[in-house]
Protein 1
Amino acid sequence: MELPLDKAAARSTPLALPAAGAAAAANQSPASLPLGPPAAASAKPLVAAANPPLLPVVAPAAAAPKSSSGAVEESKEGVEESNKSNVLTIGSIRSTLMKHEDTIIFGLLERSQFCYNPDTYDPNASRIVRFNGSLVEFMVKKTEKMHARMGRYKSPDEHPFFPENLLEVVEPSVEYENVLHPAAANININKRIWDVYFGDLLPRLVKEGSDGNCGSSACWDMLILQALSKRIHYGKYVAEAKFQGAPDTYTPAILNKDSDKLMELLTFAKVEDDVRARVMSKAMTFGQVVSEDLENEIKLKIEPELAVELYDKWIMPLTKEVQVQYLLKRLD
Ligand SMILES: O=C(O)C(=O)C[C@]1(C(=O)O)C=C[C@@H](O)C=C1
């Protein structure tokens, strides 16, 4: 994807304005924006889904338990059962997490085709009139402002990176069903996600230096950040499903404010192994460079181990962190 801010396009479009380019890029984003109404509603999303679609905004809400008797049963071995179809099951939440993997891995593959492009992150290089900050900050802030107008952050599974910066929703707004405890609304670890992405992940994903594609770099950064945020904050739903499945198991640790015990209870080593294996396999499959020359060795766009490490070191630990934060407040 070449944006007006990118080198090739800029040569023939000297008037390309960063503001217009960034806003256009935000609108053109190939990953769908989960701005639609709740899964339970029948209306179409406001933005057409493309490659690969994110989930309906409140997928878990469609499976909201109607009464505590419909709770999920779960053992430490990760076996879960439900005797009702419309409950928040750990199985349905895990299949949502699997779909998030596709979005994250595709994003990494796309961003990896560009160099690091340091000007994207340098406030002095952005030269955006009346804006103090880098190009990527500009893109995320402006996009979030617009998405807030469309109600994105009214949805309990959406979290802005710049919450102080949002605009009011245009009418009519959608009422989202929420299965989470109200305290969930105050859990937002996007600052950490931002720091991990720019501090640890990005420099290892891309080649050093500049290729002029700052607009595309910022656009993919934003899409990856949004996908990471969505996946990690899904920890709230994971935790709710686990609590509903075994309230007696979690309650003493919650009452004792015992974070370590909660961490131990909600950790499933076998599930984590499966996640690592699946991410490896997806990164190898989606990341193949397809050439006409079938004789040659298969080339990969990114090292699959990097995607696995991302999950191992950050995505799963941060998802667990969200779960602990949520459970600590679950009985407030
Ligand atoms: O599936 C779960 O039970 C989760 O809590 C999610 C998750 C993950 O982030 O993928 C996190 C912790 C568990 O140990 C296993 C997997």
Protein 2
Amino acid sequence: MGLFERDTEIYRDRDALREDYQPEELVGRDDELATYRTALQPVINGEQPNNVFLYGKTGVGKTAATRYLLTHLEADAAQYDDINLTVVTMNCDGLTSSYQIATRLVNEFRDEGSRISTTGYPRASVYEMLWTELDDCGGTVLVVLDEVDHVEDDSILYQLPRARANDNLSEAKIGIIGISNDFSFREDLSPKVRSSLCEQEIHFPAYDASDLQMILEQRVSVAFHEDVLEPGVIPLCAAYGAKDAGDARQSIDLLMKAGDLARDEDTQTVTEDHVERGRRELERGRIKEGITGLTQHGHLVLYALLTLDLEGEAPVRSRDVRPRYTRFTEMADRDPLVPRRMRDHLSELAMLGIVSVTERNEGRRGGTYREYAIDMDVDLLLDAIEDTVREVGIHQSVKRFLVDDELDHGDTDLSDFAPESR
Ligand SMILES: Nc1ncnc2c1ncn2[C@@H]1O[C@H](COP(=O)(O)OP(=O)(O)OP(=O)(O)O)[C@@H](O)[C@H]1O
């Protein structure tokens, strides 16, 4: 028998659970799809398209709905000889300026040999090139700007939708589809940009548990063999998804994690226990990612609070975290941040769900203050701030959580790091 053997007991088509899978139908989005379809109808009529703006939290189907409708629109437009439709889709993640967007767009229309560099041209001349490319392309051009909130200046968001009205285009009819999960972005747009970019706004609300259940059932029928899932598995994934953020991506990921655990264990069924364990694993991954993204001061603040928590001192006020944090910064050969910046780090840890915060009120004289405590698995946290701990040394109170080979104790003299007397 070979080293690798095909395992097909659980999955029929695991790829159907991946992000890039395009479902044939979108379930539970009838109203949004109907509004969206109406907004795109002028394209088929050969009229000037509407600019559409989609907004809603992450994983609620904005991109999936766009892909679904534009695939149909392109196929249907091909039936009409007098319609020449071009769709350009761009994700604005990593593109922060109008200039970058404009050069990228110019290059979308050009062959490899004649592409322009992304720096060095005056903005006005890049816009000129863009109008020329669009007019040369002609017909109807739909530009999809996904994650449009990454663009920090709104010049292009004004120029593109207004290009025809401003006489920059004579041949092409252009329509913009902006997509965003940042609610404040729309609010912060200047009125003139908002009125042109957001001609037709469509809000995608978060999914509830029964929506998610329908979405999961549709995926399961493609991805898994029949009767492989215990009856409670889909409702449990849906319930967790609805509780977290109403995000379809999270529910689908959880189902895939549960399926993978079942497959790794060579079992014939996916159980609720696989879902529970899968959820814990995903959670660990998310937290680890969140902590890894913090600065070293964030790690030092966390380590200070963690050791205090283990000594039974939490919940603790930030002024009581401070001496420990300051001491750790000295050990790491750094200057401590001012108290307010240190508190910002505690708030950030709270936002990540690593630290719990309790507001206390000492009555009229004492005012209100906040107390912090660790709200997460200790070994998970230690694992995530391993490098910082190594630099500062292993504090007495965390010693019992460390398996010898998990962290290199080296020659650290632990007595140096015994908790200070308070
Ligand atoms: N109504 C639905 N029916 C079937 N699958 C869906 C539905 N809504 C979302 N999904 C699936 O959930 C995942 C996330 O959806 P999508 O990428 O469209 O979210 P989004 O709102 O664009 O999120 P983001 O703002 O993070 O980009 C995709 O795999 C998508 O296929």
